[in-house]
Write a structure and sequence with these properties.
Number of domains: 2
CATH architecture of the largest domain: 3-Layer(aba) Sandwich
Helix content: 40-55%
Largest sheet: 3 strands, parallel
Distance between the termini: 31 Å
Number of strands: 8
Strand order of the largest sheet: 3-4-5
CATH topology of the largest domain: Rossmann fold
Radius of gyration: 20 Å
Shape: globular
CATH class of the largest domain: Alpha Beta
Order of helices and strands: HEHEHEHEHEEHEHEHHHHHH
Structural class: mainly alpha
């Protein structure tokens, strides 16, 4: 995702410096005109906008605050746009430690093809004036939604991911039922598309049928995001019992070796 975002910004004519924790993953970007930084700190030293897109909270901690990290080198008048899925608690800690640098949480719905087509949905939390200052830049990547105060984007990304995996698990279990009842899958999906799951069926039909095995979002990462949602629920004194059930079924699929496959693979696992 980070490479795709950088490529999109390069294609729009922006001056882009890149740094990746894994050596060599920036080769295509450098060939396309990006400057390769020697460290995270080197990448941000003279930048107006810093974008982070990493796997999880510990990765962000390393990139910002570890050896050669970006935090101390970000100019005070720059803006950090944090696009990873880390949750509002981790985001709040970043905001506090980076002050006075402005921070927007801007996690996304979509995958690499969505970036390339400029069709991400970007959930943004943070000060309205900071968002408006960078809305045009973010608009190159897709549709932006300013959702409120700092942390709002981070929270609602977790909510969306929890809803998505819970829906997939529910459909997977129901397809296991209709498979055993001898009902043809297209008939089942047509019936579900006539009800409240219409958008789910429309968006994921090929994956539900096992005809699209592309990896857009790994199951292990979806499970990581559920864990973050559970942490937030505990912090706020509530429970997410349906996502908890989805997490249990996801764990079964991961134990069966599907963690690196697209999270839609849980449907085929449940049908089997």
């Amino acid at each position: 995702m980070g490479r795709a975002i950088a490529a999109r910004l390069l294609g729009a004519g922006h001056d882009v410096t890149v740094w990746n924790r894994t050596t060599g993953r920036d080769e295509e970007l450098v060939a396309a005109g990006a400057r390769r930084a020697s460290s995270a700190a080197d990448a941000v030293a003279d930048r107006e906008v810093v974008i982070t897109m990493v796997t999880d909270g510990p990765a962000l901690e390393q990139v910002l605050f570890g050896e050669g990290g970006a935090a101390d080198a970000i100019p005070g008048d720059a803006t950090l746009i944090e696009m990873s899925t880390i949750g509002p608690t981790a985001l709040a800690a970043v905001v506090e430690r980076l002050a006075p640098v402005a921070v927007l949480d801007a996690p996304v719905l979509g995958s690499v093809p969505s970036v390339e087509a400029g069709r991400l949905v970007i959930f943004v939390g943070g000060e309205r004036d900071v968002f408006e200052r960078h809305a045009e830049l973010l608009g190159l990547l897709g549709t932006t939604m300013h959702l409120g105060a700092s942390g709002s984007g981070a929270m609602l990304k977790l909510v969306n991911n929890a809803a998505g995996i819970a829906a997939l698990v529910a459909v997977g279990e129901l397809l296991a039922l209709t498979d055993r009842a001898g009902i043809e899958i297209d008939t089942v999906l047509d019936s579900l598309a006539a009800g409240p799951l219409a958008s789910t069926i429309e968006r994921w039909r090929l994956r539900l049928k096992g005809e699209d095995r592309s990896s857009y979002f790994r199951l292990a990462l979806a499970r990581k995001d559920l864990a973050l949602a559970f942490d937030e629920a505990e912090r706020l004194g509530t429970r997410l019992t349906v996502p908890e059930a989805a997490a249990a079924r996801s764990d079964e699929a991961i134990e069966a070796g599907l963690g690196d496959e697209d999270f839609g693979a849980v449907v085929g696992f449940l049908r089997r």
